[in-house]
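Here is an idea for our session: we take a single protein and study its fold together. Start from the sequence, derive the backbone structure tokens from it, and show both lines together. Once you have written the record down, we can walk along the chain together:
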Amino acid sequence: MRIILLIIAASFTLFSCKTETKKVEENLQTTEAEAAEIPLLALGEFDAKAGAFVNKEVQIQGIVDHVCKHSGKKLLVVTDDGDVHITSDVRFEDSLKGSEILLTGVVVEERIDESYCLKMEEDNIKSHSEGASNQEQFNNKKKHIQQLRDQMKAENVDHISNYSLKYVSHNDVDLE
């Protein structure tokens, strides 16, 4: 009886190992296939096409024009045709500046609508009344809020969408 149990246990172990190996291989194939399916958006077309990819991964290629000096968690990637802002939870190396990269990120949409403008106005008034901004800053912010409202009215839309990318990964582009 003991021998039969050992044979069954050994068979089960071998079977489960083969199944696990097969699952790992299937997952690797799926991951590679998914990576191949991530769309590459030209920076010149990013704002026009990003709305179709909100909360989805895309790739962009360009030159790192700016690495945020304060937090190090923001990039500006540019080409002659456009630019995209990238945010991250981790700090970027300053050495990325000037590098051409292929970056994968998740498209993020910031919607500016009337309630957003009202909140901006409220914050501007509060900031100015507390002395955190001077009269010129207050007036500039007020003018900017009005420009947003005028843009929505001119375009006959109820919101403006600003798109950026949440960083996932990047690779240097070989320029050779």
About this structure: The mean pLDDT is 84.
